[in-house]
Amino acid sequence: FPTRRSSDLLRREFAQAETPWGPVRVKTVEGRFKPEYEDLRRIALEQNIPIAQVRQAAEEGYDTRKKGTK
User: Fold this and answer.
1) Could you tell me the pTM of the whole model?
2) Are 26 and 34 in contact (CB under 8 A)?
3) What is the pLDDT tens value at each position of the chain, 70 positions in all?
4) What is the pLDDT, as a whole number, of residue 68?
5) How far is CA 60 from CA 2, 3, 5, 8, 10, in A?
6) What span, in angstroms and rounded, lies between the C-alpha atoms of 54 and 65?
7) Distance linking the first and last C-alpha atoms of the chain
8) Are the beta carbons of 53 and 44 closer than 8 angstroms?
9) What does 38-68 look like in DSSP terms, one character per residue?
10) d(C-alpha 16, C-alpha 49), whole Å
11) Which of 7, 17, 33, 65 is the most exposed, fewest CB within 10 Å of its CB?
Protein backbone atom coordinates (compact mmCIF):
# COMPACT_ATOMS: atom_id res chain seq x y z
CA PHE A 1 0.00 0.00 0.00
CA PRO A 2 1.29 3.46 -0.78
CA THR A 3 1.77 5.74 2.18
CA ARG A 4 0.85 9.38 2.35
CA ARG A 5 3.18 12.09 3.41
CA SER A 6 1.87 14.31 6.17
CA SER A 7 1.85 17.26 3.76
CA ASP A 8 -0.75 15.41 1.64
CA LEU A 9 -3.22 15.14 4.52
CA LEU A 10 -5.74 17.83 5.35
CA ARG A 11 -5.19 19.58 8.64
CA ARG A 12 -8.21 19.13 10.89
CA GLU A 13 -8.76 21.70 13.59
CA PHE A 14 -11.28 21.86 16.39
CA ALA A 15 -13.38 24.78 17.54
CA GLN A 16 -16.53 25.38 19.54
CA ALA A 17 -19.91 26.77 18.53
CA GLU A 18 -22.29 28.33 21.01
CA THR A 19 -25.97 27.39 20.97
CA PRO A 20 -28.83 28.45 23.24
CA TRP A 21 -28.48 25.04 24.94
CA GLY A 22 -24.72 24.99 25.39
CA PRO A 23 -21.50 24.55 23.42
CA VAL A 24 -21.02 22.11 20.54
CA ARG A 25 -17.61 20.93 19.36
CA VAL A 26 -16.92 21.63 15.67
CA LYS A 27 -14.34 20.09 13.32
CA THR A 28 -12.91 22.43 10.69
CA VAL A 29 -11.00 21.59 7.50
CA GLU A 30 -9.98 24.19 4.91
CA GLY A 31 -12.75 26.64 5.80
CA ARG A 32 -15.47 24.00 6.04
CA PHE A 33 -16.88 22.89 9.36
CA LYS A 34 -18.99 20.12 10.80
CA PRO A 35 -20.59 19.98 14.27
CA GLU A 36 -19.80 16.87 16.32
CA TYR A 37 -22.71 14.44 16.10
CA GLU A 38 -22.40 13.26 19.72
CA ASP A 39 -22.75 16.82 21.03
CA LEU A 40 -25.76 17.43 18.78
CA ARG A 41 -27.36 14.17 19.89
CA ARG A 42 -26.75 14.82 23.59
CA ILE A 43 -28.31 18.28 23.47
CA ALA A 44 -31.26 17.10 21.38
CA LEU A 45 -32.02 14.33 23.86
CA GLU A 46 -31.56 16.56 26.92
CA GLN A 47 -33.76 19.31 25.50
CA ASN A 48 -36.24 17.03 23.71
CA ILE A 49 -35.78 18.89 20.42
CA PRO A 50 -34.91 17.71 16.90
CA ILE A 51 -31.23 17.17 16.19
CA ALA A 52 -31.64 19.31 13.04
CA GLN A 53 -32.61 22.26 15.24
CA VAL A 54 -29.46 21.84 17.32
CA ARG A 55 -27.32 21.45 14.17
CA GLN A 56 -28.74 24.67 12.69
CA ALA A 57 -28.07 26.57 15.92
CA ALA A 58 -24.50 25.21 16.04
CA GLU A 59 -23.86 26.21 12.43
CA GLU A 60 -25.25 29.70 13.06
CA GLY A 61 -23.25 29.96 16.29
CA TYR A 62 -20.05 28.98 14.55
CA ASP A 63 -20.67 31.36 11.62
CA THR A 64 -21.26 34.21 14.06
CA ARG A 65 -18.08 33.35 15.97
CA LYS A 66 -16.08 33.16 12.75
CA LYS A 67 -17.36 36.52 11.49
CA GLY A 68 -16.56 38.12 14.84
CA THR A 69 -12.91 37.05 14.70
CA LYS A 70 -12.13 38.68 11.34
Assistant:
1) 0.76
2) yes
3) 455 555 567 788 899 999 999 999 999 988 889 999 999 999 999 999 999 999 999 999 998 666 655 4
4) 57
5) 40, 38, 35, 31, 24
6) 16
7) 42
8) yes
9) HHHHHHHHHHT--HHHHHHHHHHHHHHHHHH
10) 20
11) 7
